Amino acid sequence: MTVKIDTSYEYALAMDKKDALATFREEFHLPSKSIYLDGNSLGLMSKRAEQSLFQLINSWKHLQIDGWTQGESPWFFLSEHLGDLMAPIVGANSDEVVVTGSTTVNIHQLISSFYKPHGNKTKIIATELDFPTDIYVLQSQLQLHGYNPDEHLVRIKADSQGLINEEDIISAMHDDIALIFLPTVLYRSGQLLDIERLTQEAHKRDIIIGFDACHSAGVIPHAFSKWGIDFALWCNYKYLNGGPGAVASLYVNRRHFGKVPGLTGWYSSTKEKQFDMEHTLTIEQTSRAYQLGTPHIFSLATLIGSLELFREATMEEVYKKSRNLTRYMMDLIQHELHDMGFSIHNPDDDARRGGHVSLKHAEAVRITKALKDHQITPDFRAPDIIRLAPVAFYTSFAEVWKTVQTLKSIMQNKSYEKYNSNRNVVA
């Protein structure tokens, strides 16, 4: 199906002139003579993130061990401070968020804390489209409780369009469900689930529900506290631009404060008691209790600068531009590539889409390689998905236009045929 839009380059340039976030491009180290559309896997380095990293390197250099409690950003309190800055991005109270751990570690922490099987309530709901690490953790946690994952992990199947239907999730909320763990946005298709509705339906049935927000944090505004979700976690190296290996984040609703986490370490302690070196843990009474060990200071440092940008731009403006960019890209694809074997794999509804466009094509591997050689960085997901993420902070409408025109040229000239179909180790 074709759509009627202005496909001219001049229109793209006009959109860039009206862009309220255009000046933020200057805040990033942009690749020269190339277009970067892989911010849903690894965001670009901002100049402020670079500066805040050097700031903490200098604090180590000049303050030595006193850097834990002195300087502009004392290390001992850094995870909590960043939690305060992160909270507005996901719509949370500041004491409900802490920047700690990695995605997988945080999933283990939160599932071990909230999965409390009893009686016939022993099963966990996930989906068959979840990112693998989520499923591995759930399987591991079930096995630790002595349950067979094949029987106790309920995976909601995708519909004929490759999407997850919320009605199917709700229909699976039986009396034997102890916990639900879902992605906010599915990593392949970019489908945004109705977080508020699913939370309400779970709580009606006395079921704990948590979310993996790796593909929505920093691109879609959330209201975790208002919606009342029980817990969530997300990485900070995608849309939040914290850099490779950036420390992740977790959220715990205030009604769960005071409970002892499933996993504890000395950073689960109240700050006042942490260095008393007692063998009796005095548990922190906020989300900060879910920390384990000493924070990775230099992997936290970049977020100081990165989160400044979000405070200035606001999540509302970031989301507005992201939605406009993906809408524009989808319309161009439908108009320019409609007879070239592509299908758009993410929801068409702007309100149900995350921050990337998911293109399906039988030759996805080879087309991805051709794009790379044309100085465009996309992302491939097996077996046949090309993900294109125009990021609000640093992608222009002109770059979206150029990307679609490059795809059109690659397909018309069949230049992708010179590449093999073996994907790289890191796709």
UniProtKB/TrEMBL annotation:
GO terms for cellular component: cytoplasm. It catalyses: 3-hydroxy-L-kynurenine + H2O = 3-hydroxyanthranilate + L-alanine + H(+); L-kynurenine + H2O = anthranilate + L-alanine + H(+). The keyword Membrane does not apply. The modification N6-(pyridoxal phosphate)lysine is found at K238. InterPro entries: Kynureninase, PyrdxlP-dep_Trfase, PyrdxlP-dep_Trfase_major, PyrdxlP-dep_Trfase_small. GO terms for molecular function: kynureninase activity; pyridoxal phosphate binding. Its cofactor is pyridoxal 5'-phosphate. The keyword Transferase does not apply. Its EC number is 3.7.1.3. Pathway: Amino-acid degradation; L-kynurenine degradation; L-alanine and anthranilate from L-kynurenine: step 1/1; Cofactor biosynthesis; NAD(+) biosynthesis; quinolinate from L-kynurenine: step 2/3. GO terms for biological process: anthranilate metabolic process; L-kynurenine catabolic process; L-tryptophan catabolic process to kynurenine; NAD+ biosynthetic process; quinolinate biosynthetic process. Pyridoxal 5'-phosphate binds at T103, T104, F131, P132, T133, D134, D212, H215, Y237, W266, T294. It is an enzyme of class 3 (hydrolase). Keywords: Hydrolase, Pyridine nucleotide biosynthesis, Pyridoxal phosphate. Pfam families: KYNU_C (PF22580). Belongs to the kynureninase family. Homodimer. NCBIfam families: kynureninase (TIGR01814). Catalyzes the cleavage of L-kynurenine (L-Kyn) and L-3-hydroxykynurenine (L-3OHKyn) into anthranilic acid (AA) and 3-hydroxyanthranilic acid (3-OHAA), respectively. This is Kynureninase. It comes from Priestia taiwanensis. The lineage of its organism: Bacteria, Bacillati, Bacillota, Bacilli, Bacillales. The gene is kynU.
